[in-house]
Amino acid sequence: MQHRIVVLGAGYAGTFAAGYLARHLHHDDVEVTAVNAEPDFVERFRLHQVAAGQQLKHRPLAKIFGDQGVRFKRARVTAVDADQKTVAVDGEHGLELVEYDTLVYSLGSTAADHGVPGVAEHAHHITSRPAALRLRDRLDAMGEGGKVLFVGGNLTAIEGATEIAESHPELHVSLTTSGELGGWLAPKSRQHLMRVFDRLGIEVHEHTRIERVDADGVVAAGGSRHDADATVWAAGFAVHPIAAASGLAVEANGQITVDRQMRSVSHPDVYAAGDAAFIIGENGQPLPMSCASAGFTSQQATAAIIGDLTGRTVKHKGLPYVGNHISLGRRDGILQVVDGDVRSRYAVTGRTAARLKESILKTATWGVANPTFAMPSRTHRTAVRTRTAVAA
Fold it and tell me: What keywords does the record list, in alphabetical order (predicted)?
């Protein structure tokens, strides 16, 4: 009887985990199923490019997973019952339950509305491909002088505002943030960031806390108003509420509480990777929701699963957070190195930083889409086969 591994979500963390497990565990012993709502692998960290009107290459998950021996189920996850080891999904065949022996939870995150009224009804976001496409269509429908307002001062807001300002010079782009734009960056990096915003004509409103979003813009604390034809909410990420409702132990923000091996502390047959996992990094701080964190946590989770199923020693993978890599349109960027939890003075800016980020993203995506080269097969037999034989 095969051991059933189910991977929820096929972003960077989930796609890597499913492929790696399928290529390192013997198919006679293990069946790996990946569940994802979208049919294609989505380069989430390029979604600001999609919103700006750029075309990205389609990478069908059925093809990617087919090359690895992973069963792909296109469906939306609606619930997880960690006690019964079942996942409720809504897919091509309607509602159904998927049973598992081992679960990899990597559903990722969405935009955090922080309880601000009107965000869900009136604001756009760029945390999913459908959302990015809706924003693209809205931008295309605007006439010259249309107003686009980003709410947020983090990486998503910065990358989205600069990308759209560069691709749509006919539009007026502005940004509001509750703090100081790029305040966490080293002085050299922040000075470069502000020069780019000035070059692209992006209006910045710092120390502005938004209290309400409506169809025509936002209202800030104190009653000041900022009009917009499209408001883009980019004020941080929130994990989907499915984990908190599943019976799994979670943090206050809904992330799954895991041990150093990425196992759920309440249900050791569940592993979390990517934005859904709460884990302390090597700098003593929680790993942020990011592409880099997805890679490190999925590597640790897969190593732990293989070790647990085969009896091999589980090695600790590194969980570093080395810095911020920010694109500022297609020809500019910032690479800010972080020393522990303190920002470093070392930074690369301009076209060189843009090329470095482009190279990193291409390498990561190529590795996902070309598993034969990126993940050579080293199949191991598991203890499942031994237990089955003993039982017989």
Answer: FAD, Flavoprotein, Oxidoreductase
Q: Which residue has the higher pLDDT, 314 or 202?
A: 202
Q: What is the DSSP letter of 63?
A: H
101-105, 132-136, 242-246, 335-339: least confidently modelled range: 335-339
Are 294 and 279 in contact, with CB atoms under 8 Å apart?
no
What domains are defined for the chain? 3-108+240-322+362-391 (3.50.50.60), 119-233 (3.50.50.60)
Whether the predicted pLDDT of 283 surpasses 90: no
Provide the CA 22 distance to its chain's centre, in angstroms. 22
Band the pLDDT of 287: cuts 50, 70, 90: confident
Q: Which three-class secondary structure state does DSSP give residue 36? A: strand
pLDDT of res. 341:
53
CB atoms within 10 A of CB 55: 7
Continuous H helices in 77-211: 119-122, 129-141, 155-167, 187-200
